Amino acid sequence: MILSMTGFGRGSASSSTKKITVDVKSLNSKQLDLTMRVPACFREIELEARSRVSSRLERGKVELNAVSEIIGGETPVQLNTEIMAGYKDQIVRMSDALGIPEPADWFATLLRLPDTLKSDTSDLDKADVEAFLDAVAIAVDALVDFRVAEGRKLYDFFVSKIANISGLLEQVAPYEQERVPRIKARLEEQLSRLGSIEYDKGRLEQELIFYIEKLDVTEEKTRLRAHLNYFLETMGAPEGDRPAQGQGKKLGFIAQEMGREINTLGSKSNHAEMQKIVVRMKDELEQIKEQVLNVL
Questions:
Q1: CA 20 to 30 Å from 148, out of 88, 132, 189, 208?
Q2: What is the band of 252 on the pLDDT scale with cuts at 50, 70, 90?
Q3: pLDDT of residue 16
């Protein structure tokens, strides 16, 4: 079964002091393009988390955002009283020197000055690390489940479009048989306008046969049916038989081959109704190509 590259997942886990929430979002991309935003205290394990996410998601433009909340213990932000005392002494001296009044609200004044607050983000124990990695794993699992659900929708969509193209291909046969007598009648009509000019009817039949052979679309129809079947087989391949570069790329290549056969069919049709059918085939194929870009 195919998987979509589009998805979203959220996971959360807690230690005794922190609650970590991780959101993962994925869109289509030719390769894996992973962006991670994590709190400063988890930067030391960002590479390990990146490796775990990459091994699961394979392809896509992936954004991971992690948020850490304090749920126990002392707050990591503390007042830097030594710095604040130094600021206050300087402000008092400045007030005396310049003859201006001291601030009415010392707290508001001092807390706006640089470095009056200090934070300790180095306190990261093993439980915090495990909680962070668990939250990442839960979010990635949710994203994979989302991809599976979207993949089912894509599968049904592709099956429908392949069936439509196959049905249109069957409609070609009646018009294909009409072409020979029509072409022959048209050529004979044009030759009759030449009046007294004589021509070899045997040679005309021979040239007509060569002309009809050039317009024969049997091979194109056979190859197109084979591509349609191969597309369905590739979508239904079990996980162990999937191509290393991803099913999406392989399905894209097959769709390109389908397009070549449809284009050739159109160029050889020489029949207005057949060309209308070819246009409808192209419309169905374009819809397939658009959605193939979302397949993993």
A1: 132
A2: very high
A3: 81
